[in-house]
UniProtKB/TrEMBL annotation:
GO biological process: DNA-mediated transformation
Protein name (Swiss-Prot/TrEMBL): DNA processing protein
Domain of life: Bacteria
Gene3D superfamilies, per the entry: 3.40.50.450
Domain spans labelled Smf/DprA SLOG: 78-236
Coiled-coil parts of chain: none
Family named by the database record: Belongs to the DprA/Smf family.
Signal sequence coordinates: none
Cross-referenced Pfam families: DNA_processg_A (PF02481)
InterPro entries listed in its UniProt record: DprA, DrpA_SLOG
Length: 335
């Protein structure tokens, strides 16, 4: 299993009460000495202060856990902010939502900022021709050497992963669970196939969830990573938050929220968004309620249909490249 001394320091710091993503992002850039980390911790933690010896004892304990619990069968390694191969997120995000520690299985370089990463997400139970249309879009992205990102859920997520593999492309699954306990369980075979064919499984979690509430929170955190690790996020289809009110037949049903949350995060982070939608055939379909809503609220949302998907894929990739070139140029002028 691959890990650095820096990653162990970040993992140990996160153990202390009151130390979360925001604190890490504000105080640590990576590769600080233990002395400095302990000094910074003691400026923050309440109650009894820590010591260098105590920090090192905790660090040794976490290293033993990594070695004993996370063998190569489940996990290839961990990366933390400051590590050479820790992926740079996209978009503008507040400190509390910045990732700083990841467990992975597969090719972690697929998350690199320079890669063409496209998230393709949607609802759990697509019907009609939604699957065929989504597959055509994914196939076109892969044809243009893009890597497909999704969340390994049933329905549209699984379709995007599987089509990427069927097209001999690479795909990344972002999980709400530890790598030793793939969720959903029925997609373990798909997860294995993703890694075997050069893809990546990645998660922020090393331990199993303790309650349904904690799992729900983890799904939300997973949804944010689907936005942060892509250049553009594409919504195949999804119910909206008010779909049950708009369509009485849906009342009492549990409607998907993951895609809605991911698209919301993308908006907050200024990640480009696209939706699959054809007004001639999707106008009365509740499975496209969120797609319609996004189109109405944001003129910048790219609309992909069966006739224009090839040109829209090119447009999306060209815009992503332009944005990266401009960002790299701006950053270069600061030094």
């Amino acid at each position: 299993m691959k890990y650095t001394d820096n990653a162990l320091n970040i993992l140990t710091a996160k153990f202390y009460k009151g130390i979360g993503n925001a604190w890490i992002a504000k105080n640590l850039k990576g590769n600080e000495s233990v002395d400095k980390i302990v000094y910074l911790l003691n400026k923050t933690i309440k109650g009894d202060s820590t010591s260098i010896n105590e920090f090192k004892r905790l660090k040794d304990r976490f290293e033993k856990i990594l070695i004993e619990k996370f063998d190569n069968e489940f996990c290839d390694g961990v990366v933390a902010i400051g590590d050479e191969d820790f992926p740079k997120h996209r978009g503008k995000v507040k400190d509390s939502e910045k990732p700083n520690f990841l467990y992975y299985k597969g090719d972690i370089s697929l998350l690199n900022f320079d890669n063409k990463n496209i998230s393709v997400i949607g609802l759990l139970n697509p019907e009609g021709d939604i699957e065929e249309r989504e597959r055509n879009i994914v196939k076109q992205f892969v044809k243009k050497n893009a890597t497909i990102v999704s969340g390994l859920a049933f329905g549209c997520d699984s379709i995007s992963h599987q089509q990427a593999l069927d097209s001999n492309g690479k795909t990344i699954a972002i999980l709400p669970s530890p790598l030793s306990n793939i969720l959903p369980t029925k997609n373990k075979k798909l997860a294995s196939q993703i890694v075997e064919e050069g893809g990546l499984l990645v998660t922020e979690y090393g331990n199993n969830f303790k309650s349904k509430m904690e799992l729900s929170s983890r799904y939300k955190e997973r949804d944010r990573l689907q936005a942060l690790f892509c250049d553009t996020i594409v919504l195949a289809a999804s119910y909206a938050q008010n779909s049950a009110d708009l369509h009485p037949t849906l009342r009492g049903q549990k409607l998907d929220s993951g895609a809605r949350l991911a698209m919301g995060f993308a908006k907050d982070y200024y990640i480009p968004r696209a939706v699959m939608y054809d007004e001639h055939i999707d106008l009365d379909n509740p499975m496209f309620d969120l797609n319609r809503s996004l189109i109405k609220e944001d003129n910048n949302v790219i609309i992909i249909n069966q006739e224009n998907f090839c040109t829209k894929v090119d447009e999306i990739l060209d815009r992503n490249l332009k944005n990266k070139v401009e960002k790299n140029f701006y950053q270069a002028t600061l030094f």
